[in-house]
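Batch job 17 of 40 flagged for manual review because the log was empty.
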Amino acid sequence: MEKEEVQKIERFKFRVTPLNLITAICLVACGFFVLEGFEGQVNRNFNDLFFMLCILAAVVSFVSDLIFRRSIPILKNLWIVETALIVFTVVMILIIKTLVF
């Protein structure tokens, strides 16, 4: 009976990962755009755009975190892979930004 209880506790153990943090940051940004946003009527479209982009980023990071958790059971390796994904994404965004603008 005790082994089953321990397995239930271990199964629901919360592990913090980099993509969890990204999801939380995106949701906080969504809350900012809903409650505060930018000043002025002209920037209302930008509020909606940034809100939708934050929701999309939160959903993508949440789903990719679930996929990585299923495929990589060791927490240390999970951190390495997710951090590499985040760094790769940021570098690609910066490269594309410099090429376009």
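Reviewer: the log was empty due to a logging misconfiguration, but the result itself is present. The mean pLDDT is 83. Unflagging and moving on to job 18.
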